[in-house]
Amino acid sequence: MNYVVLMESIVKIIAIICGIGLPILIVWLDNRKKINETSQRTQIVLAAIEKNAETDIEDLLKKMAPQKKLLKEKLLTKLLWGCLMGFLGLSILAFCACAGIVGGAPTEMLIMCSLIGFPLLAIGIAFLVNYFVGKMLLAKEIEAEQAKQSEQA
Fold first, then answer.
1. Average pLDDT of the residues of the chain
2. Contact between residue 44 and residue 64 where contact means Cβ atoms under 8 Å apart
3. Which residues of the chain have a pLDDT value below 50?
4. pTM of the predicted protein model
5. Taking a C-beta distance cutoff of 8 angstroms, is the pair 61, 113 a contact?
């Protein structure tokens, strides 16, 4: 069998597995996780009802509910991704510029680096803009959440 044909077949199989198999596996695992969490909550509520029939189920379910992310945490996540993407884009563009000036890199490589670097930099800038605009617009809501958290503690 020809080595090139074998390698092309292996690459196609890997692409099919990554393109079709992994997304299906991720969705299946996520659904299993949700089903397990729901069944565990159900078992806890049933056990609480069996031990004490006067248990307030709504209060128990509120305490068991997963914590929602605060606005401040969401904004900080956007800041993190903005810094990461922006730095990655800048570093790729800097590498591209240095390789073009110093090493005399081929134009195909320079074009490829710029096609990767500029979108990453743009995405990073978009995340940073989103962070700062969100911080300005949601300042009152963030203060209200912090006050609510301090009251609960």
1. 86
2. yes
3. none
4. 0.60
5. no
